[in-house]
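Morning run. Coffee first, then this:
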Amino acid sequence: MDRRFSEATAIVTGAARGIGAVTALRLAREGATVVVIDLDPAVAEHRAQLIASDDAVRAAGGSAQAAVVDMTDADAVEAAFARVAETQGGPHVLVNNAGATRDDLIHRMSPENWRFVLDTNLTTAFTGIRAAQRYMVAARGGSIVNLSSRSALGNRGQANYAAAKAGIQALTATAALELGPFGVRVNAVAPGYIATAMTAATAERVGMTAAEHQTAAAERTPLGRVGQPEEVAAAIAFLASADASYISGQTLHLNGGAR
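And here it is:
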């Protein structure tokens, strides 16, 4: 595997599980020092240890460490990123992956669940970009990749999540405009159906098993299958790397050709 992130520090939020965990591993296997951010200290530390002990990570010179940060707390985020800059350097790469769902139809959705999902998916990306940009601007370079979703186009029972993920795309485009003159690139990925714990929870909400839900999604997808977290991680790693040096302000859709 290429070592595109040797000597780079990468912060990945929501990195203890799912797409975030696989992305953190991918970046470390390409030589990055990865900061695994999550709210659960035990799970974050366990994930960082798993990544650091991976043979491919060691061979590439990568490493991982855990950090417990409430990404909705702007002051806490600023302090955490300052510690990273002081102890590890950078950050050179930021992956805004923190997210959650609390699905319901609009007429049943509580204001609390609306705000929780907007804060967890969209506000966290804003606080991350706001904190990271000061170091990237000073260094005249850096890459930020935000997690959007196909749900940004609208999805029954996910008004809060769809609004947040659509907001991610607008935030990405705006941040790219503002930070581009300083050599900082900002992009997003918008996965379709990816086999994760989150989509398994969605299956349960609609009364299906994860396998049944995946089969139904695959039948609606031109490639005839659902996506895997590793495929999203590969796209994130590409956008974060110098291989994508002239790509900014874009949202890359990973949905097997679905329309």
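The two ends are 32 Å apart (CA to CA). Good start to the day.
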